[in-house]
Amino acid sequence: MKLLKDAWNGVKGFVFPNQCIGCGYSLFQYEHHICRLCESSLPVVNNLAGGATLLHDRLGGRVELSQAYSYLKFFQGSITQKILYRIKYQGGQSLAREMGEKFGEDLLRYFIKENNMVLVPVPLHPMKLQMRGYNQSEEIANGISKTLNIPVETDVLERVQFHVSQTQKRKDARWEEIKNDFSSKLEKVCNRDIILVDDVCTSGATIEACANSLKLNQVKSINLLTLAIAGEKYQ
Question: Collapsing DSSP states into helix, strand and coil, what is residue 34?
Fold first, then answer.
C-alpha cells in the first residue's frame, strides 16, 4: 500500500506540487491544504444537539453559554496542531476559512440558529493584528458565516491590552493578565445573541474575559464556537 501511495505521490508531485498539511504528500488539484485521507481522519468532536459539551466542561460554569461547540480535538502531535500552526503563523487565511466552512457544515446538524444572532470573532490587539496581517478567528468566522448564513461583525469587541504569547502560562496567571483585556459597545451588544468565535480553547481565560465584557452591556445570550479544544485527554 505504501509503495502504491509513493508511486502516486511521485506523479502528483510533478503535476500538483502542493503538500498536505497532515502527511506531507502532494495534493491533487481538487484537494485544498489537506488530502482526502487525512481529512477522513481528522479528530472531530462528536457533538450532539443540546446538553453539556467539552467546552461547557472546560469553562466549568465560569461563563453562562447557551450553546458551546468545538470542531476538532487538539493534542500534541495531532493534525489539529499542524492546522492551527499554519493558520496562525504561516499565512493560513484560506485554510482558516476552509476549516470554518467545514465546521459550519458540521454545525448544520445540531446548532440552533436564532434570528438576531451575529458571529463575533475574538479580536486581536491592533499591534498584533498589524504584525500578523490578519485575525485568524475572523477568517474562521467568515467560513462559518458562509455555511450558516449568519453575519460576522468585527466591531463588537475590542482588545485594549497587548500581551506576548500566553500558551505556556498557568491558568491563574493567564486569567490575571487577560481579565481586563476586552471592551464591548453597548449599542452593538444590548439584547443580541452573540456567537463568540475563536481558534482554540485552552484554559478558557480569553473566552471568560470576552464574556464578562459582553455581560456588562446587557447581551441577550452568549454562544461559543471554537475550531479546536486543547487537552491530551481528548486523544
Answer: strand
